[in-house]
Design a protein that fits this description.
The structure is a single chain. By secondary structure, the protein is mostly helical. The chain is built from seven helices and two strands, in the order βαααααβαα. α1 packs parallel to α3.
């Protein structure tokens, strides 16, 4: 079974961070009137230095934590470091390859012409192409439809919470339950029956 731990929560937060950076850079380029394909490439190239720096510093922290956990014989610290490392590496891979591929597929399918899926049409006024695009498109009115979106978000949150209660449910790791974890190393192989 999977345990809910601090490293799991931290990994989810950091994976969202990379995608937010990428999409914000893309939206800036779309507001300037660029095509979706150009906005994808420029957005990824502008977001990459921030993503790289934050993830490299996290990898260094994971290595240090893993080393300390191994030296002190504390498997909880080593496990935290390893889980965080795997989660951040996976999220960086998915943000840089899976998200990029999905966006290129959307662009190839013609969804790039519907800019209101990606950003509101607040382009610079002096840009002639941007003015034409602004007149052509209608932005999604999230504020006007907020009750519908709040209801939809609430339903998704409740379904997520209920899914945690249905077996096989997550069990809380030692981070949340407290207590003591003991790691024992034997010089020679020991059978489980002898330990009990």
């Amino acid at each position: 079974r999977m345990a809910l731990s601090y490293s799991t929560i931290l990994t989810v937060g950091m994976s969202v961070d990379a995608n937010v950076l990428i999409f914000e850079r893309m939206k800036e380029e779309l507001r300037l009137g660029r095509t979706l394909g150009a906005a994808i490439e420029i957005g990824f190239s502008r977001a990459w230095p921030s993503i790289r720096d934050s993830n490299v510093s996290t990898f260094i922290t994971c290595a240090i934590l893993f080393w300390f956990g191994d030296r002190l014989g504390n498997s909880v610290i080593s496990g935290f470091a390893l889980t965080l490392f795997i989660g951040v590496a996976t999220s960086m891979f998915s943000a840089l390859t899976v998200s990029r591929t999905l966006l290129h597929v959307m662009s190839a399918l013609g969804l790039g012409e519907r800019r209101n899926l990606f950003t509101q049409s607040h382009y610079r006024r002096h840009h002639a192409r941007a003015r034409a695009l602004q007149e052509k498109e209608a932005a999604v009115n999230f504020v006007g439809q907020r009750r519908w979106f709040f209801t939809l978000s609430g339903i998704i949150i409740v379904l997520g919470l209920v899914s945690l209660l249905i077996p096989p449910a997550l069990y809380l790791g030692i981070d949340f339950t407290g207590g003591t974890t003991i790691s024992v190393r034997f010089l020679q192989p020991v059978r489980e029956q002898d330990v009990e």
